[in-house]
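JOB MANIFEST
job_type = single_chain_structure
chain_count = 1
residues = 339
[input]
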Amino acid sequence: MKYRLLGPTGVWVSEVSLGTMTFGGKGHPLWGQFGALDQADADRLVGTALDAGINFVDTANVYSDGESEQMLAQALGKRRQEVVLATKVHAPTGPGRNDLGLSRLHIMRALDDSLRRLGTDYVDLYQLHNFDPATPMEETLRALDDAVRQGKIRYIGCANLTAWQTSQALGISAAHDFNAFVSAQAYYSLLGRDAEREILPMARAQGLAVTVWSPLAGGFLTGKIDRGTQAAPGRRETGADFPPVDRERAYDVIDVVRVVAARHEATVPQVAVAWLLAQPGVTSVILGARTAEQLRGNMSATELELTGEDLAQLAMASELPPSYPQWIQAMFHGLRVPA
């Protein structure tokens, strides 16, 4: 396993990490679509990951209504100190009007609940799961800073924020001497490269780690789908058509991924993950799985070295259409002001 720095922390994390959204949720109308693994399955996945050198595990308080955190705690057991443990806050945790969001009230309650479920005194990385337009960012960051100073959190990060929202938060932290974000988590894949427009350049400029969720585009890059497939595999068959994918464009990209995979005697998901690991600024790719065999197969992407030709083919097949202001800036790229 290879390791990369978690932003400006000095902490090393494995370049692939374990996601636990598949833990729990059996019978749940939403979370049951993402895996519904039982404790024995979770134990096998966590053991497989740690034995392979993965030291970064990502969960969230909303996954299976907290069951994922509980199952992860049991699966880690005495190996808790081997991992950088990350969880998140924002989504609803109950029926009340204050059981969601990023207010001080909800953050403090949700953090204590996560610590209890995870069976630990502290979380290594506590992440905002989304943006809360009802709560001033200063309120949120002050609450997180207090929790860091109390020893309940080691570092803070964000997920699914825009570049301007993240930059605004970093500015507030700097102005008030609050602990600042060290990481940004974003959806990024060969079928969803929107993060390249603003989020990834911002993260590189600010020195933030970038962790990637849904690297296989919600099942489209598992290698089980092509133009002849009636529906995408896995959870998309059961109604969780997420994240959104332009299917016709996806088929064209998958055709090229298959060509590259054949060239290396690799699988489609291995190429998809290897491509992400080759992108500037990516720190760790989060792998979710239903079986240990699936996890081991996808983890082996860390051993796949894509060539310049591979990367060029994949980039051309999956490139984004130009957007403003990128297209006008590109017009002037390379020009110099006359002396």
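[summary]
The mean pLDDT is 94.
The chain has eleven helices and ten strands.
exit_status = 0
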